[in-house]
Write a structure and sequence with these properties.
Elements: H1 7-22, H2 34-41, E1 52-54, H3 61-66, H4 75-79, E2 96-102, E3 105-111, E4 118-119, E5 124-125, H5 137-144, E6 147-150, E7 160-165, E8 171-172, E9 177-181, E10 189-200, E11 207-224, E12 227-235, E13 239-240, E14 244-247, E15 267-272, E16 285-288, E17 301-306, E18 310-312, E19 319-321, E20 325-335, E21 340-347, E22 356-358
Antiparallel strand pairs: 1-2, 2-3, 4-5, 6-11, 7-9, 7-14, 8-13, 9-12, 10-11, 10-14, 11-12, 15-16, 15-22, 16-21, 17-20, 17-22, 18-19, 20-21
Helix pairs in contact: 1-2
Length: 369
């Protein structure tokens, strides 16, 4: 490995391949020219990036890339030029990524961990290894079990709702019978939701969406005319009259999230942190005031900028606003038409509602600055 400590020998190409090879841990994307990317990545390598790294349980692709890159969300953009590793999204605990001499140029080698094999007189067992996740997906799964957005709040009047509990109960729980009114097909499980936050654009006042908070799940037992009898299967809160009954959303998440900058310019704000959280930190979910109509897709990464302080000019006395400060990164995981949910992947300072979000300053896209 000593050959690679001499960066002068390889110049910018060595720096480029070092970043590209070590951080190549996700599905390929369509890329621009290798030269253009090399110039971009030359400044993206961390000064303390290791020569080798052994993957451990609990790692994520984002986290591993952060050991080598200044901007870890860019790992998919450098993977395409590294065909040496097959199935880059299948990286396992115990695997080692390293740099080696490949006919006078740096190449990537991947040492696959062997795992632990235990033998007995009767059975030979090879423990199943689970590939590491691109980001902490469990945080997202947990959130999506309890939250969803209705783009058109007026449509709520057409949805089924709870009219009563069994034995005239005002509140119900798991195992109880409830009665709902509205169109409900028999068979699939349904979610029970309560109307939550109304999200509006701070500038125009436009209603962006209505948040529904999940309180439980139910199954249809029978229907008589427009009254449907359901059994509450689970409940995180008490089920009340007027709660909404909706088919469960598809909660399947794509494991291979591809972090990337939006294709077009995006400039918005953090609307809220669901749950009424005041101070926002890493791995917390936030609601954003931009959605699919603004070009946002799952995987898009936005930079958070906090407003600069107001100061007095010592000569003129006028009040000046200092430039904003970069405060973190948010990755969109569930875009709706007018707004989105995102996960805070990095927070260099405490984030707040109202903080600006926009295209990353470092990365591809039309809105680079």
């Amino acid at each position: 490995m000593a050959e690679y400590n001499d960066r002068a020998r390889y110049g910018w190409l060595a720096a480029y391949f070092r970043v590209a090879l070590i951080s190549g841990v996700c599905v390929a994307m369509l890329l621009g020219s290798a030269l253009a990317q090399a110039l971009t990545w030359q400044e993206g390598l961390r000064g303390d990036a290791p020569e080798r790294y052994t993957v451990v349980r609990g790692d994520t692709l984002w986290g591993i890339s952060g050991r080598f890159l200044q901007h870890p969300w860019q790992w998919p953009e450098v993977w395409q030029v590294n065909p040496q590793i097959r199935n880059p999204h299948l990286i396992y605990p115990g695997d080692v990524v390293y740099l080696y001499d490949c006919n006078g140029r740096p190449c990537l080698g991947l040492e696959r961990g062997q795992g632990t094999v235990r033998l007995s007189p009767e059975v030979r067992r090879i423990p199943t290894r689970e590939a590491i996740e691109p980001i902490p997906l469990e945080v997202i799964r947990h959130f999506l079990r309890d939250h969803r957005i209705v783009d058109d709040p007026e449509a709520l009047d057409e949805l089924a709702y709870v009219v009563a509990g069994d034995d005239r109960r005002i509140i119900s729980g798991a195992g109880d019978r409830i009665y709902a009114r509205g169109e409900i097909e028999r068979g699939p499980r349904y979610g029970i939701y309560r109307i939550g936050e109304r999200y509006s654009d701070a500038t125009t006042g436009e209603l962006l969406g209505l948040e529904l908070e999940g309180v439980g799940q139910a199954r249809v037992q029978r229907a008589e005319e427009d009254i449907v009898v359901l059994e509450v299967l689970s409940a995180t809160q008490e089920v009340r009259n007027n709660d909404i009954i909706l088919p469960l959303e598809s909660r399947e998440l794509v494991r291979e999230f591809v972090p990337r900058a939006p294709d077009g310019a995006v400039d918005g704000r953090i609307l809220a942190a669901p749950g009424g959280v005041r101070f926002i930190g890493r791995l917390q979910v936030v609601a954003l005031d931009r959605g699919r109509r603004d070009g946002l897709e799952a995987g898009h990464v936005l930079q958070v900028e906090q407003q600069g302080e107001r100061v007095n000019d010592p000569r003129s006395g006028e009040i000046l606003r200092l430039p904003g400060n970069e405060a973190g990164l948010i990755m969109v995981f569930r875009p709706y038409e007018k707004m989105s949910y995102g996960l805070v992947m990095r927070a260099s300072r405490t984030l707040e509602v109202g903080d600006r979000v926009h295209n990353p300053r470092h990365g591809r896209g039309v809105a680079q600055r």
